[in-house]
Each structure stands twice: as C-alpha cells, then as structure tokens.
Amino acid sequence: MHDPILTGITQVGLPLTPFTILSPSLGLLLVFRTNASYGRWDEARKFWGLNINHTRDLNRMATAWYGNQSDFDGTEFMGSQSPLKQAVNTAERQYLLGQVSLMTWAFVRSMKRHLSPVDEDEEAFKEEIKSRLTPEQAQNIIDAAHRPNRALYDLSVAIENLPMHFVRKNEINKNLSIFEDTLGGSERLLTSPVPLFYSRHTARFLSSWLLLLPFALWEPFANSWNHIDMLFSTAFTSIMLFGIEELATQLEEPFTILPMQGFCDKIGANCDEIVSWAGEGLEDEAVVAANMKEMAPSR
C-alpha cells in the first residue's frame, strides 16, 4: 500500500460490469461510423478516378480521330481510312483540339470549385479560369449558376466543332455522360452528410464512457502509487478511441481531404500532352502501300 497525496477525500468508484457490457456496443458503433465515413471517402475517390480516366479517353479519341469525316473518294465516312496529312489544316487542328483540352480542364476545375467551401477556393478558381480561358469563356463559367454544367456544355460545343463523323462524336460524347454521373454522385455526397444525430450520439456515448472510466479503474489500480498507472491507462485509451472518432469525422467529408487540385492539374497536363500528339503516326497511302509491300512475305 502507499500513502495518498490527498487525504480526507471520500473514495468514489464504479463497478467494471457496465463498462464491460457496453464495450461491444461502443466498439460496433465506432466501427459502423468509421466504415460509413470510409465508404463516402472511397466513393468520392472513385468518382475522381473516373474523371481522370475518361478525360484521357476523350482527348485521345478526339486527337486520333480528328478530320475523319469522309473517305478519300468523297463518299460518306465508313471508318476504314484516315485523311491525308496534307489535307489537314494544322493551325486549325491545334486550335480546335486545344479547345477540347481546355474545356476538359475547365470542367474538372469547376467541379473542384463546386465541391469546395466558397471561402477556400473562389478567388483561386477565378484566377485560374481567367488565366487559361478567353475572357468570354471564363466569364461565362464564372457567371453560371451551376459552373460545372456550363463547362460541360462548352466541352460539348468544342467536340461538336471538330471535323469528324457524327458516329465518332457520339463515342466521344459518351464520356460526357460519365462526367455527369460523377458530378451528380459527388453532389449527392456533398449534400447528404452523415446524419447529425448519429455523429452526436457516437461522440456523447464515447465521451461519457471515457469520462466515467477512471471511476471503474480506481479499484483495479489500487496497488499503483497514487493510482498513477490508472492515469496513463485512461489517457492512452482516450487517445486511441478519440482518434478513431476523429478519423471518422475527417473521412465523412471527403472533398475536404481529397487532393482535388492535384487531380485537376494532372488532368490538365495529361490532356495538353495528348492533343499535342495530333498528326503523329498518320501516314499517307503511298507510305502505307510501301510498308505493306515491304512486309509482305516473299514467294
């Protein structure tokens, strides 16, 4: 035994039984809350993964299919041949494909702004949009009530302006439908948070449990000097359990922790690189015929 530092104080204790009974319930509540929050974060991450994949796909198809709207004999395009290099206006191609790349970036950047707090991203968004787009394009997006929708419309117009058969434009436009789905899914996560009473009940349950825990540990730690071991045990338990609660709190708002700015910068760089490849690998009929003749097996 030991001499207490403070004397003349009535000892107050609680039995461990209620804590033992409630521990599984508290554990399950924390697990369910953490899983629900992680599910929201994982879903948001997958939406942005789809954005990254399909922005690349869109610009790849637009670049490779540019100018394919008719056969060489002038008949309706059947998808079997590409136009001659010299038949393409390279300056016009660079501009039109550049518009597709820019509007692709404008959509994801507008989506990032749409999902972020106003005071966190508004000024940076306006500055970036004005620095990359024409004044009219930038102002149209900034003034729109729903900026991602406006940017998506501008992207549709950029695709429609490409000299390309409508069948291939339809294939490219399928990516825009996916963008609408990722945008709508992200808005659902943003506007449908974890119910407040669920979060509050978990926090109150955990706080009450940890607040009363030292009274239940008083007797088991009676042999330690002035119950010093109880203080360390209670502090360690509180840090671990409150850490789980804080983890769930952070994950339930995924757009505050996902590196969306990095995603936007990555998408912009990838799209610019893809459209810069326009015209590479396209050979005229004479070159193709010569290569085929050279590769033909000798008899």
TrEMBL record:
GO cellular component: plasma membrane
Listed InterPro entries: YneE/VCCN1/2-like
Localization of this protein: Cell membrane
Organism superkingdom: Eukaryota
Pfam family, one: Bestrophin_2
Keywords, comma-separated and alphabetical: Cell membrane, Ion transport, Membrane, Transmembrane, Transmembrane helix, Transport
Annotated membrane topology: Multi-pass membrane protein
GO molecular function: chloride channel activity
Coiled-coil regions listed: none
Membrane-crossing segments per the record: 12-32
Main location: membrane
Name this protein carries in UniProt: Bestrophin homolog
